[in-house]
Structures are given as C-alpha cells and as structure tokens.
Specification:
Helices cover 28% and strands 25% of the residues. 38% of the residues are buried. It has 23 helices and 37 strands. It starts with a strand and ends with a strand. The strands form ten sheets. Strands 18, 19, 20, 21, 24 and 25 form a six-stranded mixed β-sheet that branches. Strands 5-4-3-6-7 form a five-stranded parallel β-sheet. Strands 10-9-8-11-12 form a five-stranded antiparallel β-sheet. The chain has 938 residues and is α+β, with helices and mostly antiparallel strands. The longest helix has 34 residues. The protein has five domains: 192 residues, 5'-nuclease (Rossmann fold, 3-Layer(aba) Sandwich), CATH 3.40.50.1010; 124 residues, Beta Barrel (OB fold (Dihydrolipoamide Acetyltransferase, E2P)); 73 residues, OB fold (Dihydrolipoamide Acetyltransferase, E2P) (Beta Barrel); 286 residues, no CATH class; 87 residues, OB fold (Dihydrolipoamide Acetyltransferase, E2P), CATH 2.40.50. Keywords: Exonuclease, Exosome, Hydrolase, Nuclease, Nucleus, RNA-binding, rRNA processing. It is found in: Nucleus. InterPro entries: Dis3_CSD2 (IPR041505), NA-bd_OB-fold (IPR012340), PIN-like_dom_sf (IPR029060), PIN_dom (IPR002716), RNase_II/R (IPR001900), RNase_II/R_CS (IPR022966), RNR_Ribonuclease (IPR050180), Rrp44_CSD1 (IPR033771). This is Exosome complex exonuclease RRP44 homolog A.
C-alpha cells in the first residue's frame, strides 16, 4: 500500500521547502513480542518477554535517560523508528548508544518500524507541529501494541511530557513517567541514575527533593539567547571559539578566536560563566583596563579549590576586577596589556560528557537510604565540582565513580548532575587505568560476535591462490625484515634493500595488507572506523582490530608468509628516487628486529651477513634522505617521551626514563615517511576530490610568541619566517648545557598546531601543505593494523591501480569529512590517554620513591614556574608562593627577561631554562587526588 506524507523543512539557504514523500506500507512487520500469536516469528528472534511490561519510550526519555537505560534492570523496550530518527537528528552520540543496546543479544531492545506499518502509520495534519506529530505517532503505535497483544502482556508508554501523558490517558493508553516507573521497580539505587531536566511546566517532575539553598541569588550571568548571539557574532560584538582550560590553573582559560586573530584569555570562573573545557562559546571582550599581562597568569595552588564567586553583575560595566589567585591583590592595571581578555556570554555547543572522580569526603548522616546531596570532584582539575543527589552515599565514598552533568543554573555555584556507575576502589591501579580510558572516550569493550564473525578461520596461512594471483607479486625470496620497539606483536611494516647490477638500490616498504581481510561495510570495518586507532597505554594496548588480525593474520612476523601492500623504489646511491611502483605482494620476513638489535648489528663491524649489509645500506640512504628533507625545511622537533620498565607479574613500573632514539629508529621513520609521500602523490593524482590526506597547518606568529620570548630571554634570535628558517635557527640553538637544544625543540613542538586528516576535496592544494615535514602532499599508509586512516588510503591506492573498485563512501563528500573528523578526534584522544597513562604510572612509581633530581625551568608564572625533568621526562609546577607563605615576600615577574625576582633586597631570581634542584614526592593535599609534588631544593 502506498501512502504519502508531507514534511516542511528549512534549506541551507534559509528557505522553507515543502516535501511530499511516498511510503510503501506493509502489514507483515514483526512486533517483536514473544507472546504474539499473530506475527510470523519463523525467521525472527523474539526479544520481548511476556512476563514483564513492554515499555514504549518517547524521544525525551531516550535523549535524557540513556545512562538509566544502559542499566540491565531496564529491559523489554520497544524503540519506535520515528523516535530513533528524532534522536539521531538531535544527538548522534546518544543514538549510537541506543543502537548498541538494540544489537546487544543480552538486552531486550526491539526496533519497530512504526512509520512503515499500515496500522501504525500516521499522516501529518495541517498546522501540526513536529513535536505534536511525533507524540501522536508514539501514542498510535502504543495503542496498536495494546490491541495487537491483548491480555498477553502489559504495554506501558513512558513519557515525562505532561501533555503527551494526559492525551495518552484520555485515549485509554497506559502511561507513566520514568521517575514513577523506576520507583515501582523497588530498587532505590536506580533513582540515582535519573536525569532531572529543567523545571519546565511541560515536564512532569516526580517528588524531586530540592536540596539547594532556599535563598536563590544570581551567581552567574544569564546566557544570551542564540538569536542575540548570532546577531552579535555577525556584527563583531561577540567572538566564537573553543574554550580550553589551563591544566595547571582551572580558573584560567583560553579561547582561540579567528575573528580577532588571537587567543582571548578568560580569568576566573565568573568570567567563564558556567562554560566547560571544550565548549564552543560566545564571548565578549572586556575593557582594555581589565586585560591582564602574561605575568599575572599563575599556577593555581591545590588548596585553591574554589575561588570566591561573586554575585553576577548586571551589566558589562559592572564587572569586578579579577584578583590574583595567589596573593589576592588586584591586577596591576597600569601595565601594558599583552593579550585580550574576555568573558563568556553564551554557550553555542556544550561539551558535557561523563566524568570520573569521587565524592568529596563528608560525615555519614544518620540513617541510610535517604536522598543526600553530595559534591562530586573530578580527577580532572579543569572540571568544576558537580552536585549530585544519591541514596547510596555510604557505598560511594571510597569509590571512583562516573557522573554526568544535567544542567547548570545561573543561581547555582555548581552544575547539577547524576550518578552513573561505580568504576572501582580509589587508588586501585586497574580502576585508575579504567578512568584514563573513560575520560578519553576510548572504547575498550571486547569485540562483538558480529565483528569476530568477519575474521577468517584460524589457523590462517597464505594460500596457493594468493601466490598465483596476478595482482600479487611473489617477494618471498627477498631478504625482508622488520624493525620495531621491543616486544612488538602488531608488526605492520617491513623493509628490504637490494643492490642492483647498475649500482643503484631496490628499496621496498612492505605494509600489512589489512584490506584483504577488512572489507567495506562489514561489522569489522564499521567497528574499526569508529575506534579509529589503537591506543597504547603503559601496560597494555587497546586494539583497533581484533587480536587474531593484529598479532597473527596481518602481522608481518618473522619466518611466516604474509600478504602485503608494497611500495618499491629504484634509488641511486645518493638516495634519489629513479622510479616508483606499487603492488600487492606475498612476503616472508627473515627477521623481526628490535631497534636495539638493529642498531647493534649496524654498529658491529665484525658482522657482514646480507641482513646486516642491507641494514647499513638502508641507513646510509636514510641519512641522505633525512638531510635532504631538513635542507628543504623539515623540522626536527622533540617531545618528552617516557619509557617504563614494567613488572610482568604485578604490572607495576620498575624503572622510568626518557625514551632513547637511535639511528635505527630514524632509518625506519625515513622510509615510512617516503612511502607515505609516494602514496599521497599517487592517490591525489587519481582521486583529486576524495583522497584522505594529512596536513600540518603553518603556526601563526602569535602561536610562536612564547617560543620567541623564551629564546630572546636566553639570548637566542629565532627566525620563524618559514619552516626552513626555523629549522636552521633550531640547529644553531646550542649551549654548553647538553639539554639546552632539546628543551628549545620541545618548546617549539608545543607551539605547533596539530596535524590533521582531511578530504582533499574540502581544501585547495596550497592548504594541503605539511609544515613540519615541509611536504606539499602527505598521508598515512604505513600502519593499517593500528590506524583506520591507513585502511582508507589502502583502498584508494588499490583503486588507483585498478586492483579494486572504489567503495561507495568515496562518492559522499560529507561522509568522508565526517570520517576524517572522527579520525582526528580519536587520534587526539589516543594521545591524551597515553599521556594520562604515563602520569598514572609516574605516580605509582614515585609513590614510595621520594627523589631529588635536576630540572630545567620552561615557563615562568607569577607564583612559581613550570619545570621539565630531563631524566624522567616529567613536567610540573614548582611554587614559590603558597597560601602558607603569604606575606613572607613578594615576587615580581620580568616578562622581557623571562625571570621571577624576589623583592626582599637579596635579588634572588630564577630564569627560564635555568637548571634547578628539585625534590619529587607523591602527596595527597586533597582526599583522593594524589599528585607528584615538585619542590625547590635550596
């Protein structure tokens, strides 16, 4: 049966367009209930149980109560397709969580296509709002389920919409609020999971106890409405950007604004105006006499947990002057302002998610099981305390828990949220590692049965068809080898170097042929696309692909035949590329070396075997290639990479130190870079509008300013007019101090933008440039086992060679852009998780090992400085002024000299890059927040 439905939508140009869609209606769509005597269940599973009420949820319940719905107690749920569509349009993250519930074989969540069933199809009436139309469709579907199933089971509509509930009752439909239904289950702890939305008259609120103070004063300014924000942005009154909170000072934030071409500083929680780290905000500039010099920025003391929040001013002219967090003195308004300061006037896009931490210690009240208001303290100091209400305080005080934010009223000092679940005991290593994953949105769940079903059966080996396949070159006779970190099991690259009769070399980079096993559109491909990358923690690895692929089928292990995708060059002795070819191949690696083993072979003059000779030849070529890149302007930067030695039984760290880079590391890196550049040229030439490339935007002068100030303070003049000029300047930045040049390079690294993936059709060719590598084109091809970007590039390369057809996704520019955005998000999260894992294990290592060591000052602040500890690769704050020392002497910052001076007549001072002796010790100044404290040894 054909029906038509009319929709009104707004186009991108702002015009209103009327659409008429034809819908084919069916009468054989399965209802999903085991008790059904009417539907044909011969080919369908029956997920809905007759013994429990069948719940039909409306859109707002799905959007607001996802944490509750993920609890196993909530089951036997009908997900109407019209509701899922609305959720998908409003919140993709919640939609994905709901879809995961509907595909989980252990949960009873059934998707019913009510829009395509002849008895539940609803035509939109003239003048009916989208909300009223959806509510009516939900009631029609619920009533049909009641009629369809009869007395076999109870059908209950769950809605908190007052009008929808009233109409349902009038129409003879059983309806209840989510609060009332949860209460009926007799499990009070479930009530903690409920989100209590804004107190709207349209929302039914069930006996929610208000534990806030009775005197309702305005603490923060009201946010401007979006209409006013949009107009203000258009007129240049407001500025838009992402708010980033200082990791050393939660009362200081920055917003990068394209409209004024500079970072705007936000001082104090009042000026942040309820914005969270990562929020997209609208802000206005403060008058110039309220701008702060860089010297006034401070490191927040651990005891400065909450600054005093004043009543919000009535207008911009009434804004109070921000006080220095350390001394409490007003900012010096006579100094020359360096960067603009502002305050948030509205939130354009929230970055709220679930947070990990613990409840603030408090005495247990008399009696148990009553609703108690408590403050949640996130492990991340950038997040303000969150007020929750719980009935299980006694069980939560010594636990790491997850809390989600629901709202932040302008009359409340803290945001309001709800308890989600317990992670584990505070201080337990496994618990704290789980916190790292949750905080960085890392999916560490086991792979589903649908994903594992996509893998070939084990044991797997190269077949005769693979060898005789015309598209695949047999390279098993070559001396191919891999060089990786010690203990590496997911080996995705190997190399060979053969001397040719004409004096040239044949050099090959062989990459695991992951796309031979990961096919587009399969559950395995979808899962890899969502995960985006493998995540490397100190003590374990979170795989993008299942272990049978990463460690066996695809891994280029020694002495086993494997499938590869190869880039093969003919190179002259001076490393000039004469020709390039790409081919699928079969290889058999003769050795899987660690960096240390490869370096030892190259350094041992007694070894003259073919493998060692090939290593030396490759290293010679790599040195020439590296110097050529540097001559073209490629930067040699540095980062503080830390390496732990881990106890194999307890998984505790036994030793810690800086990661050592050898020539063997640089040799492998050089050929991986060359392969990525060659592949980028090939795919861009064949697919100019849909290639996945990687770019590194040129840093602005403002971004490089901290580096330039530091360099000037120590007598260096850096030329930042181009990457080549900066590279040459960094090479000349040497002193007697062996760490000096490395520190300058670390500081330069921190001024850079992040390299990002992008679709070639989204930008113009000049924007493709990779600043750090001084390369006009670049991509990622060499690690498909651990990066989904490389999987996409393998498919592009195969299509460019006529080996495979280009998958349909490459015709959808919007979807490609979305994939690139997710890859960038996942890549950054993986980096942050790795760093957080290092910080956690650093705390564990130093917990019972107080140590004195040497450090270098890398940043001056008004109450101390930030130091870098070369021996351990650790960075942290050293305080010169604390609350306990207030009044013992003032410190003055010399911004030009990057120096902090004590004003007591002794002229004691500390300068940037100066070596100082520090004491390192794990302390816990606040309950449940251990930290590595660095103090000056005088």
């Amino acid at each position: 049966m054909l029906k038509s439905n009319t929709f009104i939508r707004k186009t991108k140009g702002g015009k209103i367009k009327k659409e008429v869609r034809e819908i084919y209606l069916r009468d054989d769509i399965y209802c999903g209930a085991a008790a059904c005597k009417t539907c044909d269940t011969s080919t369908s599973r029956a997920p809905l149980d007759a013994a429990s009420p069948l719940l039909v949820l409306d859109t707002n319940v799905l959007l607001q109560q996802i944490d509750l719905l993920e609890n196993p107690v909530i089951d036997n749920v009908v997900l109407l397709s019209i509701v899922l569509d609305e959720v998908k349009n409003k919140n993709m993250a919640v939609y994905n969580r709901i879809r995961a519930l509907s595909t989980n074989p252990l949960r009873k969540f059934f998707v019913f296509s009510n829009q395509f069933h002849k008895d539940t199809f609803v035509k939109r009436m003239d003048g009916e709002t989208p909300n009223d139309y959806n509510d009516r469709a939900i009631r029609v579907a619920t009533r049909w389920y009641q009629t369809h199933l009869g007395t076999a089971t109870t059908v209950l509509l769950i809605t908190n919409d007052r009008e929808n509930k009233r109409r349902a009752t009038e129409e003879g439909i059983s309806a209840d609020t989510i609060q009332s239904y949860v209460k009926s289950l007799g499990q009070p702890e479930l009530l903690d999971l409920l989100v209590h939305p804004s107190e709207s008259k349209d929302i039914v609120m069930e006996e929610v106890e208000d534990l806030r103070p009775s005197k309702r004063q305005v603490v923060y300014q009201e946010h401007k409405p979006m209409s006013e924000i949009t107009l203000g942005l258009h007129r240049g009154i407001y500025h838009q950007g992402k708010l980033r909170v200082n990791r050393y000072n939660p009362f200081e934030a920055y917003v990068g604004s394209e409209s004024i071409g500079d970072e705007i500083i936000i001082h104090g929680r009042q000026n942040m105006n309820r914005a969270f780290d990562g929020d997209i905000v609208a802000l206005e500039l403060l008058p110039q006499d309220q701008w702060h010099e860089e010297k006034n920025l401070s490191i927040a003391d651990e005891e400065d947990e909450e600054e005093d929040v004043h009543l919000a001013p009535s207008s911009a002219d009434d804004a109070p002057r921000t006080t220095n967090l350390v001394s409490g003195s007003a900012t010096d308004m006579n100094s020359t302002p360096s960067r603009p300061a502002g305050r948030v006037v509205g939130i354009i896009k929230r970055n709220w998610h679930s947070y990990c931490g613990s409840l603030e210690p408090m005495p247990l009240p008399a009696g148990t099981g009553s609703l108690i208001s408590a403050l949640f303290v996130s492990k991340d100091r950038r997040i303000p305390k969150i007020r929750i209400q719980t009935r299980q305080l006694e069980n939560l005080l010594d636990k790491r828990i997850i809390v989600a934010v629901d709202s932040w009223d302008c009359q409340s000092r803290y945001p309001s949220g709800h308890y989600v679940r317990v992670i584990g005991e505070i201080g337990d290593r496994d618990t704290e590692s789980e916190v790292v994953l949750i905080e960085n949105d890392i999916n560490s769940r086991p792979f589903s049965s649908q994903v594992l079903a996509c893998l070939p059966p084990l044991p797997w080996c190269v077949s005769s068809e693979d060898v005789t396949n015309s598209i695949r070159l047999d390279l098993r006779s070559l001396c191919i080898f891999s060089v990786d970190p010690p203990g590496c099991k997911d080996i995705d690259d190997a190399l060979h170097c053969t001397a040719l009769p004409n004096g040239n070399y044949e050099v090959g980079v062989h990459i695991a042929d992951v796309t031979n096993f990961v096919h587009p559109g399969t559950p395995l491909d979808d899962e890899a696309s969502q995960r985006g990358t493998s995540v490397y923690l100190v003590e374990r690895r979170i795989d993008m692909l299942p272990k049978p692929l990463t460690e066996d089928i695809c891994s280029l292990r020694a002495d086993v035949e494997r499938l590869a995708f190869s880039v093969i060059w003919e190179m002259s002795p001076d490393a000039e590329i004469i020709s390039t070819r790409f081919t699928k191949s079969v290889i058999k690696s003769c050795a899987a070396l660690s960096y240390v083993e490869a370096q030892a072979r190259m350094d041992d003059s007694r070894l003259m075997d073919p493998l060692t000779t090939n290593l030396r030849n490759m290293n010679t070529l790599a040195k020439i290639m590296r110097q050529r890149r540097i001559d073209k302007g490629a930067l040699t930067l540095a980062s503080a990479e830390v390496k732990f030695q881990i106890d194999t039984e307890t998984h505790d760290p036994l030793d810690i130190g800086m990661y050592q880079i050898r020539e063997a590391n640089q040799m492998v890196e050089e050929f991986m870079l060359a392969a990525n550049v060659s592949v980028a040229k090939q795919i861009r030439e064949c697919f100019p509008s849909c290639s996945l490339l990687r770019r590194h935007p040129t840093p602005t002068r403002e971004m490089l300013e901290p580096l330039l100030c530091t360099a000037a303070a120590v007598g260096l003049e850096l030329d930042v007019s181009s990457s080549k000029a900066l590279a040459d300047s960094l090479d000349l930045a040497v002193r007697d101090d062996p760490y000096f040049n490395k520190l300058i390079r670390i500081l330069a690294t921190r001024c850079m933008t992040q390299a990002v993936y992008f679709c070639s059709g989204d930008l113009s060719p000049p924007e493709y440039h990779h600043y750090g590598l001084a390369a006009p084109l670049y991509t990622h091809f060499t690690s498909p086992i651990r990066r989904y970007a490389d999987v996409i590039v393998h498919r592009l390369l195969a299509a460019s060679l006529g080996i495979d057809k280009l998958p349909p996704v490459f015709q959808d520019r919007a979807q490609l852009t979305s994939i690139a955005d997710n890859l960038n998000y996942r890549h950054r999260n993986a980096q942050m998780a790795s760093r957080a894992s290092v910080e956690l294990h650093t705390l564990i290592y130093f917990r019972n090992r107080p140590t004195d060591t040497e450090a270098r000052i890398v940043k001056i602040r008004s109450n101390g400085f930030i130091v870098f500890v070369p021996k351990y690769g650790i960075e942290g704050p050293v305080y010169l002024t604390t609350r306990a020392e207030k009044g013992s002497g003032e410190w003055r910052v010399d911004e030009q000299q990057q120096k902090i001076i004590k004003m007591d007549g002794n002229s004691l001072s500390y300068s940037v890059l100066q070596a100082v002796r520090i004491h390192m010790e794990v302390v816990e100044p606040q309950p449940n927040r251990p930290k590595l404290q660095l103090t000056l040894v005088t």
